[in-house]
Amino acid sequence: MIFWKLFFNSNKKTRLEKNTDSQNILLIRNLNNKNKIYNIYLSTTKNINLYELEKLCDSVGWVKRPLKKVKIALENSFLTISLFYYNENKKKLIGFARVTSDNSFNATIWDVVIHPDFQGQGLGKELMKQVIKKLRIYDISTITLFADPQVIKFYRHLGFIIDPDGVKGMFWYPL
Amino acid sequence: MIFWKLFFNSNKKTRLEKNTDSQNILLIRNLNNKNKIYNIYLSTTKNINLYELEKLCDSVGWVKRPLKKVKIALENSFLTISLFYYNENKKKLIGFARVTSDNSFNATIWDVVIHPDFQGQGLGKELMKQVIKKLRIYDISTITLFADPQVIKFYRHLGFIIDPDGVKGMFWYPL
């Protein structure tokens, strides 16, 4: 296996790794979870196992969605970010977020999820910081999302603002 | 000029026209504006004159944006809709809206604008109805936007809801 490591510009000791299927994989954390050590990796590849993603969304109680539609949504997202660890060489998906964007001015973040077993350890924060960092590379300056009441505080801590200058998020649903 | 007309399925008498550069153009209104008759057309072509678009955005007092970034934004929008009339065979842009989307679940509407000379005559409403109609063809059911305080009422009349179930629109801006 061709395998190289590179120190990444960050406060934490992180590494950019490249494996055989040329996905960029970043080690973001060595996590001690219930006396087990997990190496948590981040990847922006869109080659995501849809069943794993469904299982992850199911773990936080989200409504089931047709896999066909999920596939289209991933393909047409500007950015997808996955968090995972390896278990016997198999990726175990524990976090996810995706972004729609015009690649220029605006981006909207959707489907932010961390598996309940891995919540409360700063992984959501790290995930969001990486999303913002990647969007800023494209000079996208209006980064938006729609937050459920229970996660508004979480996003506030990351610098997100509710209704700036009275701008309101609005939704249209089919009847 | 190859030119054909077709009656469109709508309450109003509208026509789908196709011109030589194979853009779909829809006549949406015969407008009497200051004793002059305007045939107002709608098109979803992305072949938009960036200077015309800039002029239109300028007419409603929006901040100037780099044309290079506008071009990228249009290219990466899921949908762009223009309203215009012809003046001596030249298109005069009087309305615009664009949408980012994952082509599956969600869409976000940006840059909705009607030229001040043509406001108050239902064109904004017609523009938005066409946006929603086109998104529904793709079975996109979460249609979102961020509304300035002065247009919240306009979107409410179109069926848009503020903060459903306490979901809040949030923004992150670079410092």
TrEMBL record, chains A, B:
GO terms for molecular function: N-acetyltransferase activity. Keywords: Acyltransferase, Chloroplast, Plastid, Transferase. Residues 46-175 form the N-acetyltransferase domain. GO terms for cellular component: cytoplasm. SUPFAM superfamilies: Acyl-CoA N-acyltransferases (Nat). It holds the Pfam family Acetyltransf_1. It comes from the Eukaryota. InterPro entries: Acyl_CoA_acyltransferase (IPR016181), GNAT_dom (IPR000182), NSI-like (IPR045039). This is N-acetyltransferase domain-containing protein. It comes from Bostrychia moritziana.
